[in-house]
Amino acid sequence: MTTFFGRRLAGAALTALALAACGGSGTNPAEGPEPGEVSDPPNEGVILAEELVHIVERSGLYSLPSDPTQVLTALSTLPDGLGDVIAMHLGRLHPTPDEFTPGMGPLLALLQARANLLLGLGQPVRVLEDTAGGELSILLLPMDATTVIVILPTQVVKANPAAAALPATPIDLSQLTYEVNGNTRTLEQYMQSGSTNAIAFMHNGRFIYDDYQNGFNTNTRAHMWSVTKSVTTALVGIAVSEGLVDSIHDPVTKYIPEATGTVWEGVSVEDLLQMESGTYWVDVPVHQPEELVLMGADYHSNGLFGMTRDEYLLRLTRVSPTGDHYRYNSGDAQMLAWLLENVYARPYAEILSEKIWQPAGMQDDALVMVDRLGNTFASMGLMATPRDMLRFGEIYRNGGRSIDGRQIVPQAWVAASHNYDKANGGGPRGYMWPHWGGEESGNYTAAGYGHQRVSVAPSLNMVGVRFGNDPVDSIAPKEWEAVLTAVGNYLEQGVAQ
């Protein structure tokens, strides 16, 4: 008891000191504004200072099992658990012709490609050119370390064994030019930057062009990072259409009763879809790495230390009333995955396989990252090939239908997914599909860390996929949009821009 109160007093002292340093005091979001009013945005410095206490609690007190029976079970099954851990790591690092490990091309091919880029001087010159233009850019790392996560296991999303190849009208676009920051470059030069692993395009439902770098090839699965969120919201739309979710206005606790009485009380499914739950989340450098480390610790210790996905989500904190403010929030996407697993009573990988991957004719098995209990991360962790991500983007461009005309995602859900009009039920990023090329263009994209993109361009009858490894290159988003626009205009008009 003394230890417990000691922790609480220490936490209170830390909070007081942190708030003093920020020059303010915390607010109680539960108090909220008057009815019909929107609360003021939280003070970011204050809420970050307050969160330091909760980080300490999550990584210490709450990461230790409180049930003696749970401890005994974990200890008794520890040998089997360690065997699973060893098998996972050995399986991950077993090289294939297409992958050194999921998310990375064959190691030798990767190193050869990096050496060629550096020794050919094109990549260093490109970095200097971008830097001189005011962009932040870096030289290549010897290994593509940022696109692979090896601390957690994966489950297989089974593809359609009878899937047909994409209908194709190949066109060589390597010498097509585009402009960015006053520089004219070709698509071939775009790939020589080394910051792009793969690009691929479809136009009017037909495959047109792809290109690869850094050891990637057509069969290499990339880690899609937060593109996974857009896949998750698609599955929610299917669940709604099948009657498993009665309404997106329902409280999420209706479908996740385990969240009753927690920070998620009062949050609707729509709040999650639009990232307006009011819970606190700072992707990097706070919550995403913290959760990954705690989930990894839980997996490797067989539950003796750390947290599962669900345990972590239930320990998050609230910083504003639900529905008042948009905040980029991976926790909201993970709650949607939890909802899906509950309403379908199956693992996320099986749901994705049955509802999208197989009926849409995906050719390659995908992977999703899971915790020790098999719960899918789902705000990131999907690993898939370029042609299958093209198929996914084409579903949205085609009003929810697959290439063979089968309705996969409800048409109305596709439209709602890129509705940004708050007055008409939209959100700042739709249902985790932000716009590109200006909201008025009607174009939108699934976006992930390292500038992963599945970009849908109805205005150009095109879908473009980019697998990247440039988390800090500031030119990456606008250069990709320049490439998309040039390719789309060329294919639509037959005139290089």
UniProtKB/TrEMBL annotation:
First and last residue of the signal peptide: 1-20
Annotated protein name in UniProt: CubicO group peptidase (Beta-lactamase class C family)
Organism: Sinimarinibacterium flocculans
UniProt keyword list: Signal
Presence of keyword Signal: yes
InterPro entries per UniProt: Beta-lactam-related (IPR001466), Beta-lactam/transpept-like (IPR012338), Diverse_Enzym_Activities (IPR050789)
Top-level division of the source organism's lineage: Bacteria
Tagged with keyword Cell membrane: no
Domain Beta-lactamase-related: 185-482
